[in-house]
Amino acid sequence: MNKELLRIEGLKTYFDTWAGIVKAVDGVDIEVIEGETLGLVGESGSGKSVTALSIMRIVPSPGKIIEGKIIYKEENLLEKSEKALREIRGKEIAYIFQDPSTSLNPVLTIADQLLEVILAHQEISKKEALEKAIELLKLVEIPDPDVKIWNYPHQLSGGMKQRIAIARAIASQPNLLLADEPTTNLDVTIQAQILELMQNLRKRLGMAMILITHDMGVVADIADRITVLYAGRVCESADTKTIFYKAKHPYTQALLTAVPSLALRTDKLKVIPGNIPNLIEPPSGCRFHPRCEYAIEKCTEKIPELIEIEPGHKVACFRALEINLESPLGGAKNN
Amino acid sequence: MEVQKIINKEILEVQNLVKHFPIYTRGIFLKKQVGLIHAVDDISFSIKRGETFGLVGESGCGKTTTARSILYLDQPTSGKINFEGKEIITIFSSKNKEEKQKLRRKIQYVFQNPYASLDPRMTVADIITEPLTIHTSLPKKELYQKLYELLELVGLEPYHAERYPHEFSGGQRQRICIARALAVEPKLLIADEPVASLDVSVRAQILNLLKDLQQKFNTTYLYISHDLSTVRHLCNRVAVMYMGRIVELAETQELFDSPLHPYTKALLSSIPIPDPLAKKSRIILPGEVPSPINPPIGCRFETRCIYKKDQNCIKYPPKLVHIGKGHFVACEKTKKP
Ligand SMILES: Nc1ncnc2c1ncn2[C@@H]1O[C@H](COP(=O)(O)OP(=O)(O)O)[C@@H](O)[C@H]1O
Ligand SMILES: Nc1ncnc2c1ncn2[C@@H]1O[C@H](COP(=O)(O)OP(=O)(O)O)[C@@H](O)[C@H]1O
Ligand code: SF4
Ligand SMILES: [Mg+2]
Ligand SMILES: [Mg+2]
Fold first, then answer.
1. Exposure pattern of A56-66 as b/e (b: 16+ CB <10 Å)?
2. Number of H helices, E strands in chain A
3. Average pLDDT, whole number, for chain A?
4. Of B171, B204, B273, the CB nearest to A262
5. Which of A62, A98, A188, A241 has the fewest CB atoms below 10 angstroms from its CB?
6. Do A261 and B169 lie within an 8 Å CB cutoff?
7. Cα separation, A264 vs A335, whole angstroms
8. Average pLDDT value for residue range B220-225
9. Nearest in space to B152 (alpha carbons), one of B215, B110, B212, B219
């Protein structure tokens, strides 16, 4: 029970650009437990995708992993050879992107794309592989799979393409699925279909999932635990209920109150002043301090460490224990 | 008495609006029409002076086409649009330049993409004052005075005036668009997904700004969005669209508390609620939206409907019926008086 599958320690991934060094991921710690769904949330540019790309070691140039450890099943992926990593990529850890077109090749039929991954990891005949491919399409609930398998991606809707991308990702029964905003481009009724499908598949195949999203509603719905990123660093990490009802980081709190909600109708939304910081010269000390209403002198000078304040609940804020944040959901269901 | 009547009157009335886009074969010499996209198909609604009217629905349901038809950026196929009591399709399609100018001044818009809608070669000052120079003959001094007022109003700094759009974040650009739209004191502001491309923290700033400005100027808003939570936050009344038709229309509270159309019900239940302990009774609709080229001939929602449908659903398009308290529904199965 609660066996750790992945642990990221002090990950730093920088982009050396003409404008300066972009510190996209700057000391990130994340844990994933076997079979769980970890929600990785944050606004755009907070480093969610770069973190996922770093786990797969497919950070595009000029990005480089500068420092840190990525421990998967007790081995540091950053110390493995490219060849050893190829065995893990796709087979043990699979990835689906926000835009399904990115993971699908436009000039190949669905059959070709699925056979490619099936045959890469299993020694079976083409005919068996094709049967397996059709099975996969059934698993992701594509209607008329034996017809659709001969389609090209452009013949399918966005929702169908994302189903194919999921089928491809789970073809080799990975232990960990990295899903990077898989439903962000889809309409809500299709999003509901895809999220339900992913939840069912995750349970059925017993895999763990890192679900990347900017939507607090989505993680409330399906994550077991949540890690909140801000400007390349982790602010807070805890189980889902704690994040929503007992958040201790001012940014987590701000994220929760800035969302207009169907459940709570307020006259005026609480606003986080200012804009998302530039990552070439990020703010000194706590990166959130220029926008934080609780900031004190110390926040501008020192970087707060991610500290476990109660079992399973980590916060990176100097004032976490002294300020009293009230959940927008109210305190009634606290504890 | 007369004045009272004018104040209470509907500012915009859309009647039986239809917009079809023809699709052609891609021949070199012969252009042959091979079908029609039924983007907007016989919709009617009216907006009261000073209110925020919401138009919601998933992508491709015809929201933007409706907005563009009102602005005559797309020429409506048929229907009537009355604005302040005048039929404006006739005006826009006439040669009466002066009347058209007047309308263009009174109806302003803000679009989704603040990156595409600002000319990168113009300074913020030029962008914001452009509609003023087109529609008014303010002397330079007053023009600048107005510019600084507008900048302050939307939360930008005076020194921003001399900068170019690329120097701004998405949220700031949307502020520039809003300042530009408000410069000529429009009667109706059409905002088409104004916060869709913005991050949550910035989104709240813009939503609050829109709300404040409306209170200040009593502008009427047509707010278009696929995001029901922002609609709930801003709108007084809401119309839900599906495949070019309005399926339900009601006051916001009423619509969210007691939706009647099976599509509205599913749509509302699909929105993930940011509360892990919230009760979830999600209605997952089967299938996807059919093609707008050959839409279902009866109820457009018939192919995905969770109700037990009958011949009426399949054969005849249900009418949008008033069922009391300003609540309208277009569904055979919900015709309760
Ligand atoms: N190829 C690249 N070159 C330069 N900077 C990059 C590149 N890819 C990402 N970044 C920067 O890294 C930061 C984090 O990006 P990303 O992980 O994509 O954010 P998120 O997925 O949270 O929206 C951003 O500031 C972005 O500008
Ligand atoms: N200029 C156009 N030519 C052809 N089809 C169009 C055009 N504009 C919109 N459409 C089609 O009309 C339908 C409604 O589109 P739109 O009004 O943009 O929807 P929404 O704004 O609700 O997403 C869609 O099927 C779209 O593809
Ligand atoms: S460390 Fe300081 S600035 Fe950062 S979140 Fe906590 S109080 Fe705010
Ligand atoms: Mg991303
Ligand atoms: Mg649109």
1. bbebeeebebe
2. 12, 12
3. 91
4. B273
5. A62
6. no
7. 21
8. 97
9. B212
Q: What is the model's pTM?
A: 0.89
| Max Cα-Cα span within chain B | 68
Tracing tokens 């520039």 back to the chain, one arrives at B176
Domain boundaries, chain A: 104-171
Strand, helix or coil for residue A196: helix
Q: What is the atom index within ligand 3 of the atom nearest the CA of A292?
A: 8
DSSP secondary structure code for residue B334 in this structure: G
- Going B104 to B108 to B114 to B118, the CA torsion angle's sign is positive
Which residues of chain B have a CB within 8 Å of the CB of A259? 200, 204, 229, 274
Given a cut of 50, whether residue A310 has pLDDT beyond it is yes
ipTM over 0.90: no
d(CA A320, CA A300): 16
Percentage of residues in chain B with pLDDT exceeding 90?
63
Q: What percent of chain A has pLDDT over 70?
A: 96
| DSSP-assigned letter for residue B158 | G
Residues forming a β-bridge with A65 = A13
Residue B131 tokens read as 């509609």
Give chain A's largest Cα–Cα span.
68
Q: How far is the CA of B329 from the centre of ligand 5 (A)?
A: 23
Do the Cβ atoms of A205 and A167 come closer than 8 Å? no
